[in-house]
Amino acid sequence: MSESKSNHFLKKEIGLYDLNIKVYQILILFCLLLGCFLVRFYRLTSLPVFADEAIYVRWSQVMRSEAGLRFLPLQDGKQPFFMWLTIPFLKIFPKDPLLAGRMVSVFSGLATLAAIFFLPFVLSWPFRVSLLAGLIYIFVPFAVFFDRMALADSLLSAFGIWSLVFSLLIARYRRLDLSMILGFILGGALLTKSPAVFSLILSPVLIVFAFVLIYKQSLKKVFQLIPLILTSLFIALAIYNILRLGESFHMIAIRNKDYLWPVKEIIKHPLDPLVPHLKDVFRYYWSYFTLPLLVLPFFIFLKKLDFKLLFLFFWWLIPLAAQSAMAKVFTARYILSGVPVWVLFSGLGLFYFWEKLNLRSYFCLFSILVVLLIPSFYFSYFLFFNPAKAPLPKDERMGYLEEWTAGWGIRETAEFLKSQQIDNHIVIGTEGYFGTLPDGLQIYLEKEEGITAIGVGYPIKSLPEPLSNAAEFGNRVYLVVNRSRFVPEPGFEPELIKEYPKPGGDSLLFLKIN
What does each C-alpha distance from 67 to 249, 289, 337 come to in angstroms? Predict the structure, then answer.
């Protein structure tokens, strides 16, 4: 089939209309997706399990084993869609549950890349913007890091950027099928994480303003959009209300209050935490985006600005500002949803810069891009081969690499326990009751009937009663605890089997109770 006939088929049968997507461009997209997959999948478990990852994967295992617990995450006020998607991967990777959970984020990253590639076509930007933005997304540390973690944020980011794409498509074509698809996307986002409410609110606003200001339609025709917008909202909210089938649906609202300041408090101190969190935003973008990619969007000013850029900017800014003003807890992954738009700005800025230089050579364009990506390659190298030296922001290092939330040595401990099973039942106690321990250990011991992992609290000063009772019944008893939380009293001297050091000075102690 010739290229012209193929393009005609795509437009006629798939409905791409005047987007002018050519077959070779689709082939390039597949190449980008393959490259993105390889970067995400390579040494995917090089970073140890993180606290929330352990919880999510453990929930997924329990939900897979017991159908009646498919809404288990609601008990902690978390939406379960990420865990639902993890369940099939647990069947594909039965021996590595952490890999299974992280695969959901890998494919979420691929979905995000596809949206970034497709969006310039919707905005009638040159194809080179799609190509540059796609290449940047593959290597930018912000995406590389979180697309390799078993966390819901990459999935939410994918839903967010696709809701932007379909909002613009609805404004352009006014089609019912597009509004239905947008509804499903928004519904999936609401099943993933509460910040999806930003997409739910911004999508109708973007549709109306894009219809008038970007696509130059009459205000009288705005009423044609009302049924389409209502269809999207109805489908989204109908999907979200599936969660009411769970007994703990009310916990979502309760737990959201633990993370957000109420409006009356924000009014009392409007600049706190807004200003500190905005400083954190700059710090996270500086570290995870790297300086060259961070400044590329400013080359957009080499061209005349238009409403397309303005809408994208507000799509990025409003959720960022709202979370900065309201959030009690603030980390880099909470602002991941805005990264795809900034990547698109980076691709557009590089394109304008290249045009300004008037080099006209693709070799020069990609040479410039490679130079700009050197800090990203540096970041990825350490992430793959020596995560302890990855240049993360200090507070992020503490969470993912250094403190009790970092699961160094947990997998190795589980493998040792599996190799020790003979006749006696094994009971292993862990500090805490929820999080990296014991969940991080339990995900690796799920199908080991002869091993029981239980939480015994912290700090650990003496032999916990559950372990003492287990020893009395003839079980072999072990203890896993972080050195910083182990303050043994005189007379309590368990045997050290292995110590797993962590960056920053702490370590995980694997002890045997004699």
Answer: 17, 41, 31
Task: Give the pair of three-digit tokens for residue 1.
Answer: 């089939």
Tell me whether residue 5 is in a domain: no
Whether 458 contacts 485, CB under 8 Å: yes
The first and second tokens of residue 500, run together, are 């797993």
Q: Is residue 1's pLDDT more than 60? A: no
* Number of independent structural domains in the chain: 2
Largest CA distance in the chain: 83
Residue 258: count of CB within 10 angstroms of its CB: 9
Which pair of tokens denotes residue 477? 């008893």
> pLDDT per residue over 258-288, tens digit each?
999 998 889 988 898 999 999 999 999 999 9
Measured at the CA of 133, the angle between CA 128 and CA 135, to 5 degrees, comes to 95
The structure tokens 């909470």 sit at: 334
Domain assignment of residue 240, given as a range: 17-385
One domain, residues 23 and 131: yes
Cis omega (within 30 of 0) for bond into 273:
yes
Q: Which tens digit of pLDDT belongs to each residue from 29-80?
A: 999 999 999 999 999 999 999 999 999 999 999 999 998 999 999 999 999 9
Cβ atoms of 455 and 429 closer than 8 Å: yes
Whether 320 and 274 share a structural domain: yes
pLDDT band at 17 (very low <50, low <70, confident <90, very high): low
